[in-house]
From TrEMBL:
Signal peptide boundaries: 1-19
Residue ranges annotated for the GerMN domain, each copy included: 106-192
Keywords: Signal
Protein name per the record: Spore gernimation protein
Species assigned in the record: Micromonospora costi
């Protein structure tokens, strides 16, 4: 009798050791979908085959693969304005775009460069050499690595294309230089604005931009490398008549590039097309040289 009781106690102990615990941690949430699943069901795409049914969703699992996990970053709202550097007469010329806000501003800028100028901008001679498919690969340590969609063209064309990218991307505080990967005619190392400064025209107008609606007084701004740093400005109405003129001096000139900014005032009786001109007065004969024309819409003042 005692032997039977001992044997019964031994069997009970063994069975108790094999049973799962009644409490405790289930472990960390899975980091990937389980490979095992529930019963097999007929595949709707093959008809005769079978595929594992997806496991039921649980509060501890990650979202489905097509729904990327949240990074916790705020969703951009509003708009963002970016400068774009196009090409005119073999020189760099800026314009501007306002688009819905995005965290990927470098990608947005390259996409806009590849899209090219608007009809109004193209009418002034602006064009782009940056091809579709150009994309930023990474930004680290102030250097943006960029892959261009195409690299064909003579040396001057390739250099202008690179200059467009460099001058456009270095407007962002996180980008000081650009590295092209593969180099494809570019320097092996990173390059910055100074490497393409010779591709700027003597006078650059950064504001206003082509097609902008402007009212008086208007601040005209940009950079210049002109004789005695003197930049002249005038406003033309729809009939091409001069309705205002002024001049200013850049912060540097005659062999160095400096910033300039000046307010110009005019009066018009109705909204109409107009032109802002920035130019240099020739020291030899007083003619207007290095003229930059920006078509705008003149709006009457209140």
């Amino acid at each position: 009798m005692r032997r039977h009781l001992a044997a019964l106690l031994l069997v009970t102990a063994v069975l108790s050791g094999c049973a799962p615990p009644r409490s405790g941690s289930l472990g960390p949430a899975p980091t990937s979908a389980p490979t095992a699943a529930g019963p097999a069901t007929a595949s709707p795409t093959t008809g005769g085959g079978t595929t594992a049914a997806p496991p039921p969703a649980t509060s501890g699992s990650r979202p489905a693969p097509e729904t990327p996990p949240s990074t916790g970053a705020p969703v951009p709202t509003g708009t963002v304005t970016v400068d774009l550097w196009f090409v005119r007469d073999g020189r760099l010329t800026p314009t501007r775009r306002t688009r819905p806000s995005t965290l990927a501003t470098s990608r947005l800028a390259l996409t806009e460069l590849a899209a090219g100028p608007t009809h109004a901008e193209a009418a002034t001679g602006l064009t782009t050499l940056v091809p579709a498919g150009s994309e930023p690969l990474a930004v680290a340590g102030g250097v943006a690595t960029v892959r261009l969609g195409a690299t064909a063209g003579d040396a001057a064309t390739v250099r202008l294309r690179q200059a467009q990218v460099v001058w456009t991307l270095t407007q962002f505080p996180t980008v000081r230089q650009v590295r092209f990967d593969p180099p494809a005619g570019a320097p092996d190392g990173p390059v910055g604005r100074a490497d393409y400064a010779d591709l700027l025209p003597p006078i650059v107008v950064t504001s206003p931009t082509v097609g902008q609606r402007v009212s008086s007084p208007l601040t005209v701004a940009g950079t210049a490398d002109v004789f005695e740093a003197t930049v002249s400005l005038r406003v033309l109405d729809a009939g091409g008549r001069e309705i205002a003129t002024t001049f200013t001096t850049a912060s540097c000139g005659s062999g160095c590039r400096g910033d300039y900014r000046a307010a110009v005032t005019w009066r018009v009786g109705r909204e109409q097309p107009g032109t802002i001109e920035a130019y240099e007065v020739s020291a030899r004969d007083g003619a207007r040289v290095n003229v930059v024309r920006v078509p705008v819409t003149l709006v009457p003042g209140r």
